[in-house]
Design a protein that fits this description.
The structure holds 2 protein chains of 2 kinds.
Chain A: H1 22-32, H2 38-50, H3 52-70, H4 75-96, H5 99-135, H6 144-149, E1 156-157, E2 223-224, H7 225-231
Antiparallel strand pairs in A: 1-2
Helix pairs in contact in A: 1-2, 1-3
Chain B: H1 5-15, H2 19-41, H3 44-64, H4 76-95, E1 113-116, E2 119-122, H5 127-130, H6 139-158, H7 161-172, H8 177-184, H9 188-214, H10 219-229
Antiparallel strand pairs in B: 1-2
Helix pairs in contact in B: 1-2, 2-3, 2-4, 2-7, 3-4, 4-8, 6-9, 7-8, 7-9, 8-9
The chains are: A mainly alpha, B mainly alpha.
């Protein structure tokens, strides 16, 4: 069956209901729920005005949908839904709770890692400091005051590869050597394999090893300019 | 149904991992979601599992939602029902239960009711009735209401799940056509057609149901009826 709206029969889909105009009935279905757009509303009203079968369909549909609506808040359904919701609530409380310790662990882990890194860095710095002080004994802080008291000439000249080791720059209270223009006393040790002796003519060579604790080293091969001038 | 400002605030807080905000969302939508899943599947255990899965996915999904989607047009209710519906469809696909009769849906099987000459009688008074919860409406009304709910539940259980979902979302949960179509992932016109067919199918299934109820109810006959038609006879 086909009407003026071009609807086609619903045969083959379900039992034939109403006049069989599926398109008009779909419009009536939406019209019944108040969800029809203007075109559907016009189609439904026009079709209902002339089709007695679809008028009966409208009534039966209204009754069926009323039944479905009526059971929306069925007490038994509400009871079961409440029980399921309670069960879900308890489950979620357990399921979502363990995330807190996980967060704590994840917060503590970086802290521990940073602490470990800091401790390792501190140990490394300490080791490097010991190595550095061993490799470069002149950098010992104890020699700093002596260095400051040494009156070194303004200029130095390279004369010969002379190595002066364990040269104490601290003057004794009762100096055993005569003061010279260069107020430095030095001592040679055998730890340095036969180093060339610095020849300071005006300096008497009395060892003063036990009198001074300060240690000072001068770059090998460099002698004070005043000594170079005396040589010349 | 645009999201309310309070809902938007709660959603924002839940997105930041606030458990209390998510708890508020659950208290608002936990029961409707559970009711929808139970009506659709007719299986309490499955409805419980899928309800848990739905809210777990919602909890994780809220945090992953881009802020652009959490606007004034964001529909939290429809979003939750979309997750629940997809979970239910996945469950049915996994269990190959699409269109199969949902036996557990009928409360006649759980021993709460007994039948006699088509009438459904309350076998035992529930705890709610003892405290006066049901007595306000009267036992007769309660029995009628429960019986009606049982019949409608069984009829919905016989429909194809796609059709049952249309009816439940619109008539039970009160979603508009546009919202229900969005939940089901359908164009509006397709949803209208599907609802029209669901209405027809319900009408016919209800007639069969009442015809059976007018005689002596036999579960075997009902099962053979649904299995013969495959439970999807409305979609042929």
């Amino acid at each position: 069956m086909q009407d003026r709206w071009g609807g086609r029969s619903a045969a083959g889909t379900l039992d034939n209901v109403g006049c069989g105009n599926e398109r008009a009935q779909m419009a009536i279905s939406s019209y019944l729920d108040g969800e029809a757009d203007p075109a559907e509303r016009a189609m439904a009203e026009w079709h209902l005005a002339e089709c007695r079968a679809c008028n009966g369909l409208l009534a039966s549909w209204g009754q069926a949908t009323g039944l479905v609506r009526q059971t929306a808040h069925d007490v038994e359904l509400e009871r079961i839904a409440r029980a399921i919701a309670d069960q879900t609530r308890n489950w979620l409380a357990v399921e979502l709770q363990p995330e807190r310790p996980v967060l704590k662990r994840s917060q503590r882990s970086p802290g521990l890692a940073l602490g470990g890194i800091a401790a390792a860095f501190a140990v490394l710095v300490a080791i490097l400091g010991v190595c550095f002080s061993t490799a470069f004994p002149g950098s010992d802080l104890r020699s700093a005051p002596a260095a400051s008291t040494a009156t070194l000439p303004a200029t130095v000249a390279v004369v010969s590869p002379v190595t002066v080791n364990n040269l104490s720059t601290q003057l004794p209270a009762t100096p055993s050597v005569a003061r010279s223009s260069l107020s430095l006393s030095y001592a040679n040790t055998k730890a340095y394999n036969e180093p060339a002796k610095a020849e300071l003519p005006s300096l008497k060579t009395t060892p003063v090893l036990n009198q001074y604790s300060g240690v000072f080293s001068i770059t090998p091969g460099v002698v004070p300019a005043t000594q170079a001038a005396e040589r010349d | 149904m645009a999201i309310k400002k309070l809902d938007q605030y709660i959603v924002e807080r839940a997105r930041q991992g606030d458990h209390e905000a998510f708890s508020a969302i659950f208290e608002e939508y936990g029961r409707p979601i559970a009711g929808y899943l139970y009506r659709l599947l007719g299986d309490r255990e499955a409805a419980g599992d899928l309800s848990q899965e739905t809210f777990l996915k919602a909890y994780r999904g809220l945090m992953k939602l881009p802020p652009s989607e959490i606007g004034p047009d964001f529909n939290l209710s429809a979003w939750l029902f979309t997750i629940a519906h997809h979970n239910a469809m996945d469950y049915l696909r996994r269990n190959k239960r699409r269109g199969s009769p949902v036996v557990a849906f009928s409360w006649l099987d759980v021993g709460r009711f007994r039948t006699g000459s088509g009438a459904v009688l309350v076998e035992e008074r529930s705890a709610e009735s003892a405290t006066g919860g049901y007595c306000e409406a009267g036992e007769e009304n309660l029995a009628e209401q429960v019986a009606l709910g049982d019949v409608v539940g069984r009829v919905l259980g016989r429909l194809a799940k796609e059709h049952a979902a249309c009816l439940i979302l619109h008539y039970h949960q009160g979603f508009s056509y546009a919202e229900a179509a969005k939940i089901l992932g359908l164009p509006l016109t397709t949803f209208k057609m599907r609802l029209y067919r669901a209405r027809q199918a319900f009408q016919q299934a209800y007639q069969h149901e009442t015809a059976e109820a007018s005689g002596d109810y036999k579960a075997e006959e009902s099962d053979s009826f649904t299995s013969r038609d495959g439970g999807d006879w409305d979609a042929r």
